[in-house]
Amino acid sequence: MTPDESSSSGGNERLRFVEHKGxxxxxxxxxxxxxxxxxxxxxxxxxxxxxxxPGSVLTLADFTGAQVDKSVATRIKEVLALDRPYVKKSAxxxxxxxxxxxxxxxxxxSQREFPTFQTREEAMEWLVxxxxxxxxxx
Length: 138
What we know:
By secondary structure, the protein is α/β, with parallel strands linked by helices. The protein has a single domain, classed as STAS domain (Transcription Regulator spoIIAA), CATH 3.30.750.24. The chain has helices spanning 35-49, 70-83, 100-110, 120-128, and strands at 15-20, 23-29, 57-62, 87-93, 116-117. The radius of gyration is 14 Å and the shape is globular.
């Protein structure tokens, strides 16, 4: 599958594969989503990631302006825990409005790390790199 034709979620442009420096990254665009949209997207994220080989998926989630309430936070925790076997590396952007207690809860519950970055470009560099040249913001 080529990144140009890889909208994996039935044409949903918020969930798509993009190529960066020869590697494929699953872009999860939650930016400016309502709580209802977030819940629907999270179900699709879970299904899409589970279709891949264990330890193979690079993910980039953009939370810019997303509405995250307790129900969404609970679902995010569940999806992160269930996706853990399939994900090689994750990075997040747009987390400034995400309550810190939610962020810490996500890490604790899923037993995963979610480095945050200022831009998608920085996050993609970190995802495909050797971790040494771009530092996460959190």
